[in-house]
Amino acid sequence: MRPTAALAALLLAAATPAVAAPAPLDAPLVMTDMHLHDPWIVADEASRTYYLFTRNEAAMTGDKRLGTMVYASRDLKHWTKPKLAFVLPEGLWANAGAWAPEVHRWKGKWYLFTTFHNSKAVIGKVGPRETYRRGTVLAVSDTVDGTYTLVRGGEPIVDKAQMTLDGSLYVDPKGKPWIVYAHEWWQMVDGTIEAAPLKDDLSIAGPARVLFKASEGPWVVGQKQPLGDTVFVTDGPELYRSKTGALLMLWSSYGEKGYVEAQARSKSGGIEGPWEQLGPLVQRDSGHGMVFKSFDGKLMMVLHRPFANALGKLYEMRDDGDRLSVVREATELDGEAYPTHPCVAGHSSFDGVTPGC
């Protein structure tokens, strides 16, 4: 006798092993409690857990060592106390930094990109400034939340004679990895965003190419330095492939009212560009953002605001095909400890044109 559809469904359910629900998290923190700068969120489908990486803060972990800490959440609102995911070993070339951690899945492992420097390791002089070692290093772990260990002895991915920071992994349509990074204004005066091809072990495979200069952003304001010169800042590149195949980049610099989260678009659809500037997404001392998909399918962006004593801010985003747009600040998640950008409340333009934005 053939079973009915309902009976068949019951039999199938009985034969299918139950998937255990993730163990509950002890998550007493909300974003207004959390020290963070240059936030990076991994939405880990396997554990249905969001991991937020940022520079270690002794006030949060009780550990003064230089490295990366990670918070965890199941709902983007309630977060665990942070734990150390990576500690820079003593005796290496670097003694400061731990900026802009990014975590990516690559070839079955998790890789951490994070930037360190050492002001006493002088490498030359540009105008009135001595340049010194600054660069993004690579560390690896079997698990997303660490512990991460250094790759290649902690040497920077990019040539150590260059002052670079905020290295980000981009994988092109052919599956080839690239590092995209900011070449520091300290050395360049007019900071650049550059990209270099990588081998499968994430070491450099070829020469870097300049994608654009900071001053190409019409909204970018030069920063007068104590020694008298004016410089232009590039920070925090992250690549995003839109639903129509457009290659977009989030990046940050300074505008008329502080730090700014902006976007650019490749006219060719490839990393080589040429790149055109699309203007600010969020202003008023907000920046160094990245986008991710929430477990309910929403496109989200996290950034920090303000630049000093920063807290995390979450935005619901929209993929318009040729660009990203801000839908709203998710104040029910981030707590809105600082006044929101005036454009958010009215869902107005974020292109930097609307008066008062």
| Structural class estimated from helices and strands | mainly beta
Return Rg in Å: 21 Å
Strand content bin: 35-45%
Largest sheet: 4 strands, antiparallel
What is the strand tally?
22
Q: What is the tally of helical segments? A: 5
For this structure, what is the CATH class?
Mainly Beta
Q: Strand order across the biggest sheet?
A: 1-2-3-4
Q: From the 3D coordinates, which CATH architecture would you assign? A: 5 Propeller
Number of domains: 1
Task: Provide the low-confidence segments as ranges.
Answer: 5-13, 341-357
Helix content: under 10%
- Give the topology string: H per helix, E per strand: HEEHEEEEEEEEHEEEEEEEEEEEEHH
- Basic shape: globular
**What is the H level of CATH, i.e. the homologous superfamily?**
Glycosyl hydrolase domain, family 43
Multimerization state: single chain
Q: Which fold name fills CATH's third level, the topology?
A: Tachylectin-2, Chain A
Give a written overview of the molecule.
By secondary structure, the chain is mainly beta. It has one domain (23-345): Glycosyl hydrolase domain, family 43 (Tachylectin-2, Chain A, 5 Propeller). The chain contains 5 helices and 22 strands. The strands form 6 sheets. Strands 1-2-3-4 form a 4-stranded antiparallel β-sheet, with no helix packed on it. A hairpin with a 5-residue loop joins strand 13 and strand 14 (230-231). Residues 5-13 and 341-357 have low confidence and may be disordered.
Give the key terms:
357 residues, mainly beta, Tachylectin-2, Chain A, four-stranded antiparallel sheet, 5 helices, 45% strand, disordered C terminus, glycosidase, Glycoside hydrolase family 43 protein, GH43_arabinanases, Glyco_hydro_beta-prop_sf
